[in-house]
What we know:
The protein is mainly alpha-helical. It is built from 14 helices and no strands. α4 packs parallel to α7 and α5 runs parallel beside α14. The mean pLDDT is about 85.
Amino acid sequence: MDIIRFLKNWTLPVSMAAGTILYLIFAYTPVLEHAANFFDPIFDFIFPLFMFLILFVTFCKVDFKKMRPVKWHLWVGMFQVIFSLILVGIILAFGLKGNKLILVESMLTCIIGPCAVAAAVVTEKLGGNLTSMTTYTFISNFITAMLVPVCFPLINPDLSMSFIQSFLLILYKVCIILVVPMILAYIVKHYMRHFHQQIISVKDLSFYLWGASLSIVTGTTVKHICHSDATVGFLLLIAVLGLILCIIQFACGKGIGAYYGSTIDAGQALGQKNTAFAIWIAYTYLNPLSSVGPGCYILWQNIINSIELWDKRRKDEKK
């Protein structure tokens, strides 16, 4: 029972540790090389499926009639837009190249990336407003879908895709991961009530699905770092910048939310990023090494989430 309680209380760090250890075992054990090659494409397929299921389960709990923008959505969205444009402006104004360009690109991916699909899951666990968070998830993904096709061709003019092609590609990926599970959840909630009750009766189902997916994305991040040609010092610099950005975004989000009585919601909305999506856009549009930024951001944001969840449990126990 103590082990089960420990796993429930520390799901996120346990998931990250499991993903790291399993990757290192399979990557550096010669006997397991064929098994590693076999499972690699399987995990690439499973991860988006986990994202889909997490959102589907989360949307099953949402009151769709109450989904509407609120004031803090505007200010958090403006932060994402303004700071993304500032970083793009710095790259263009100073003509950054080499490692300096990679550093700023890694920062850009951590800011321009949309709100994580799991942010609503963590927000619900922390006692925040699930419906308000879900609404902002849509807004944030739409902002990203507009910013990336505009900003990234300016940074990398050698891109083969046109503005319309880039915009539609990103919008398509967002719709598959975000819109389709919402439509299915709406259908299940209103027309398959018995199935809907079975889903929502499983406590914290979406949270544990997120824990499983976190193991996969952590293992993928470790893989990118291990196969990088950069020096350890440069990788550590990217990691530190990711930590600083993570703290700033969580703090600014909570500061914005404090004015509207939505500290938890706004903090998670701005601080918790869809790092898997950010890694994808870094590999697709920028220097692949810049993906280490959002890769490290996974670690920092989930450490902060784990601390927040621990603090929530501590306060609940006192009550």
